[in-house]
């Protein structure tokens, strides 16, 4: 695993790795929303993105030994800062399940998701229920 200090989103670091198919994968955690001078009451909500960014082509150049970027899988999780540490083991199990094509490796999530799709395997953009509630003051429609 390699961790860089630059990414597409406000200098947040990215971690990258080569999977067992020799494809480059990467994860980035950045602020989805945050308070600012114009809207000081805006909630602080994070987004964890795997293999999804405008940085894809620059990343491929850094890892010359890979067969290229993993373009077959991307994932986003929108989450509260207080939930992120609880989700780290779950994210590891998600990456391992994806890498080994073994859904049985995926652990149960530590906090509930807001799901509108009946099959969890079809989702690549999840919101925790608390992030949904905080974003709009009610449950919002996540973009799947």
Folded structure, characterized:
With 144 residues, the chain is an alpha+beta fold. Helices cover 22% and strands 22% of the residues. The protein has 3 helices and 6 strands, in the order E-E-E-E-H-E-H-E-H. It has helices spanning 56-62, 84-100, 129-136, and strands spanning 2-4, 14-18, 24-33, 45-50, 75-79, 125-127. It has a 6-stranded mixed sheet.
SSE topology sketch:
Elements lengths: L1 E3 L9 E5 L5 E10 L11 E6 L5 H7 L12 E5 L4 H17 L24 E3 L1 H8 L8
Parallel strand pairs: 5-6
Antiparallel strand pairs: 1-2, 2-3, 3-4, 4-5
Strand residue percentage: 15-25%
Identify low-pLDDT runs.
138-144
Q: Give the structural class.
A: alpha+beta
Helix content: 10-25%
Query: In angstroms, what is the radius of gyration?
Result: 16 Å
The count of helical stretches stands at 3
Helix-strand topology string: EEEEHEHEH
**Subunit arrangement of the protein:** single chain
Mean pLDDT: 78
What does the main sheet amount to? 6 strands, mixed
- Give the CA-CA distance, first to last residue: 28 Å
How many beta-strand segments?
6
State the strand order across the main sheet. Answer: 1-2-3-4-5-6
């Amino acid at each position: 695993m390699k961790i860089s200090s630059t990414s597409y989103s406000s200098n947040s670091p990215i971690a990258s790795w080569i999977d067992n198919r020799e494809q480059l994968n990467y994860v980035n955690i950045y602020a989805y929303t945050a308070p600012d001078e114009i809207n000081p009451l805006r909630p602080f909500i994070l987004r964890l993105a795997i293999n999804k960014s405008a940085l894809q082509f620059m990343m491929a150049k850094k890892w010359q030994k890979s067969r290229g970027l993993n373009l077959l899988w991307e994932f986003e999780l929108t989450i509260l800062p207080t939930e992120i540490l609880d989700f780290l083991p779950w994210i590891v199990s998600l990456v391992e399940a994806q890498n080994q094509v073994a859904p049985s490796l995926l652990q149960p999530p530590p906090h509930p998701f807001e799901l509108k799709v009946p099959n969890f395997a079809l989702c690549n953009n999840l919101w925790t229920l608390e992030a949904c509630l905080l974003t709009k003051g009610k449950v919002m429609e996540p973009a799947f």
